[in-house]
Specification:
Blueprint lengths: L1 H15 L12 E5 L6 E7 L11 E3 L2 E3 L2 E3 L4 E6 L8 E10 L8 E2 L13 E9 L4 E7 L4 E4 L10 E8 L2 E10 L3 E7 L1 E8 L10 E7 L5 E6 L4 E6 L12 E7 L5 E12 L1 E3 L3 E5 L8 E3 L9 E2 L2 E6 L2 E2 L5 E12 L9 E4 L6 E7 L13 E4 L3 E3 L2 E4 L3 E7 L6 E10 L3 H4 L3 E4 L3 H4 L4 E10 L5 E7 L3 E3 L10 E7 L7 E7 L3 E6 L3 E7 L4 H4 L5 E7 L5 E5 L7 E4 L12 E6 L5 E7 L8 E3 L3 E6 L5 E5 L9 E3 L3 E6 L2 E2 L8 E8 H13 L1
Parallel strand pairs: 7-9, 17-19, 34-36, 44-46
Antiparallel strand pairs: 1-6, 2-5, 2-7, 3-4, 3-6, 8-16, 9-15, 10-14, 10-16, 11-13, 12-13, 12-15, 14-17, 18-27, 19-25, 20-24, 20-27, 21-26, 22-23, 22-25, 28-33, 29-32, 29-34, 30-31, 30-33, 35-43, 36-42, 37-41, 37-43, 38-40, 39-40, 39-42, 41-44, 45-54, 46-52, 47-51, 47-54, 48-53, 49-50, 49-52
Keywords: Disulfide bond, Signal
Protein name: CUB domain-containing protein 1 isoform X4
InterPro entries: CDCP1 (IPR038811), CDCP1_CUB_3rd_6th (IPR056266), CUB_CDCP1_1st (IPR056268), CUB_CDCP1_2nd_5th (IPR056269), CUB_CDCP1_4th (IPR056965), Sperma_CUB_dom_sf (IPR035914)
């Protein structure tokens, strides 16, 4: 008894929900119930059966029928006299949406009744929306969007979308579409008819589109086509292959990725006999000073276009006696640009702060020969020999230059902290933005100016890959390096050039500095993944710099004091924190006997301190020779402090460190003792 009550409840619920409830499959019966006022009608009618075939009938109310119509407020329970009704019948669901007498039900369109509840027949859902001429309607299609097909073509999965519009009482076919394309939206006015055809075996349960309200578009329709990458789309004029409506306007809007280019080619077209006006296509092309650009259908169409663009087909008043026919089938091909000089580049600095990028000529020797101009253009309109882009905006640039190696780029960015309470322990990535790396001009310098409140915070630089200091004994052979220098006004101090592939894990500096990434070869583009520093704001310390070093077990690590060619500034101090693994011994060697410093006031000295035992040795850098090579079994510090030296007698320290396994050191000592 409880089961019977449950069955009745489900049936009533199905009616209330506009459902078409499929009973147990073994019963071979279906039930479709449509409430009053639903504006939905269901037609089950003969399809196109294969021959020869046995007759098949719809069994309803114990009668055999060849068709069945279900109207709002009716309920039908029916079955079929054959086991393969999908080969004999189709079901058509029509829904009328009246936007003339009341508000439109805009939003996502539902499949009603649900496909899962319908009999397993080929199904066609038809929505017919009637609206005033001044009302615009927009069909929005979910990904994977739509692909238009021509006469005689079919869709691989059998699912098709047929879309029509209306001019007064005349229906106009916009096109037939499959899935997996570029068409994302179709805008029309005065009404729209949408038919979704689903094969009986397809389990799709969503319409895949929604309807939105728009203002009058003042033309037959607008089709939006969105490209995510390279590809092509074939599109056709309304009513194709029949004639385009007389004196109508149809527009296609194309959305193209900034790094790609679009070309238009007409595959098939015919022109009519015009009595008034002239048939034409109009392009709205970004950057063009003559928008809209007008072409005849016979003309060669634009190619290598950068950015979004519109294409419109305009009909004419045709000769009443001999109208002819206007129709157009065309293809839009989107691909990577073939000609570097025609590219338009989007440089997005909208999320950057306190940054500028300058593209300018490289310094060259003057020549008496004529040299063609080399220009950088902003928005394809304003061109000059150099161009500076600032942060906070997006910039579109192109190049008019016979040889782009004549240009280079220099960029600057300031990262500052004025409130030590807010910045403490915060970090920033020092990396060249991808929008700059994509440009076809070599990057020369990218400088970061790092500012901290005086005597409040210091800075720590941590590289993505450990760094090597550039010296004459061990030069940097990478395509780029970092120049680290003081940015304190009046202080001439640079810490050196550094490149990836060394043993320096961290550089700590006392106060304001600039970090400049400088490139030396076009191969920097391939090595760009190796670039990357992280700067952190850390508690203030008094030394000018601290280098944290973990020496290599195979190669000597060469280290030199800052300002090595001019000498360490007066009264400054620098330290090296040398890490020694537990199974290794560090071999420390100074390359000169003396530093050459002569003090005018104060003292210059060096401290070597074992970090574990705190034992330290102090050496006068003015009077004493530098220590002889020595072994260090634990991590240690090397610190130098300068005096106020006599001009020309500056402090310069140069040394190297090599790690050796402890067992090897023991063997060497035993050998010496035996000898």
């Amino acid at each position: 008894m409880a089961g019977q009550n449950c069955g009745v409840t489900i049936a009533l619920l199905g009616v209330l929900l506009l459902g078409a409830v499929r009973l147990l499959r073994g019963a071979e019966a279906s039930e479709i119930a449509l409430p009053h006022g639903s504006s939905i009608m269901v037609f089950i009618k003969p399809g196109t059966p294969p021959l020869p075939v046995k007759p098949c009938y719809i069994i309803s109310s114990k009668r055999h029928k060849t068709s069945l119509t279900i109207k709002p407020g009716e309920k039908e329970v029916f079955s079929f006299s054959c086991h393969d009704p999908e080969n004999h019948f189709v079901v058509e669901i029509q829904k009328n949406i009246d936007c003339m007498s009341g508000p439109c039900p805009f939003g996502e369109v539902q499949l009603q009744p649900s496909t899962s509840a319908l009999p397993t027949l080929n199904r066609t859902f038809i929505w017919e929306v009637k609206a005033h001429k001044s009302i615009g309607l927009e069909l929005q299609f979910a990904i994977p969007r739509l692909r238009q097909i021509g006469p005689g073509e079919s869709c691989p999965d059998g699912v098709t979308h047929s879309i029509s519009g209306r001019i007064d009482a005349t229906a106009v076919k916009i096109g037939t579409f499959c899935s997996n394309g570029t068409v994302s939206r179709i805008k029309m006015q005065e009404g729209v008819k949408m038919a979704l055809n689903l094969p009986w075996f397809h389990n799709r349960n969503v319409s895949g589109f929604s309807i939105a309200n728009r203002s009058s578009i003042k033309r037959l329709c607008i089709i939006e086509s969105v490209f995510e990458g390279e590809g092509s789309a074939t599109l056709m004029s309304a009513n194709y292959p029949d004639g385009f409506p007389e004196d109508e306007l149809m527009t296609w809007q194309f959305v193209i990725p900034a790094h790609l280019r679009a070309s238009v080619s007409f595959l098939h077209f015919n022109v009519s006999n015009c009595e008034k006006k002239e048939e034409r296509v109009e392009y709205y092309i970004p950057g063009s000073t003559t928008n809209p650009e007008v072409f005849r259908l016979e003309d060669k169409q634009p190619g290598n276009m950068a950015g979004n663009f519109n294409l419109s087909l305009q009909g004419c008043d045709q000769d009443a006696q001999n109208p002819g026919i206007l129709r157009l089938q065309f293809q839009v091909l989107v691909q990577h640009p073939q000609n570097e000089s025609n590219k338009i580049y989007l440089v997005d600095l909208s999320n950057e702060q306190a940054m500028s990028l300058t593209i300018e000529p490289r310094p060259i020797k003057l020549s008496r020969k004529f040299v063609p101009g080399c220009f950088v253009c902003l928005d394809s309109r304003t061109c000059s020999t150099n161009l500076t882009l600032t942060s906070g905006s997006k910039h579109k640039i192109s190049f008019l230059c016979d040889n782009l190696t004549r240009l280079w780029m220099n960029a600057e960015k300031t990262i500052s902290c004025m409130d030590h309470r807010y910045c403490h322990r915060r970090s920033h990535s020092l990396q060249v933005p991808g929008d700059i790396l994509q440009l076809p001009v070599q990057l020369h310098d990218f400088s970061w100016k790092l500012l901290v409140p005086k005597d409040r915070l210091s800075l720590a630089l941590v590289p993505a890959q450990k760094l090597q200091q550039h010296t004459q004994e061990k030069v940097c052979n990478t395509s780029f390096s970092y120049l680290v220098a003081s940015a304190v006004p009046g202080q001439e101090l640079y810490f050196g050039f550094f490149c990836p592939g060394g043993s320096i894990e961290q550089i700590q500096v006392k106060q304001n500095i600039s970090v400049t990434l400088r490139t030396f070869a076009p191969s920097f583009r391939q090595e760009a993944t190796r670039q990357g520093l992280t700067v952190s704001f850390i508690p203030f310390f008094k030394e000018e710099g601290i280098f944290t070093v973990t020496p290599d077990t195979k190669n000597k690590v060469y280290l030199r004091s800052p300002n090595w060619d001019r000498g360490l500034p007066s009264l400054t101090s620098v330290s090296w924190n040398i890490s020694v693994p537990s199974n290794q011994v560090a071999y420390l060697t100074f390359l000169k006997e003396r530093t050459g410093v002569v003090c005018q006031t104060g003292r210059a000295f060096m401290i070597i301190q074992e970090q574990r035992s705190k034992a330290e040795e102090i050496f006068s850098l003015e009077d004493e020779v530098l220590p002889k090579p020595s072994f260090h079994h634990h991590s240690f510090w090397v610190n130098i402090s300068n005096c106020s030296p006599v001009s020309g007698k500056q402090l310069d320290l140069f040394f190297w460190v090599l790690l050796t396994p402890r067992t090897m050191v023991g063997k060497r000592r035993k050998t010496k003792a035996h000898l």
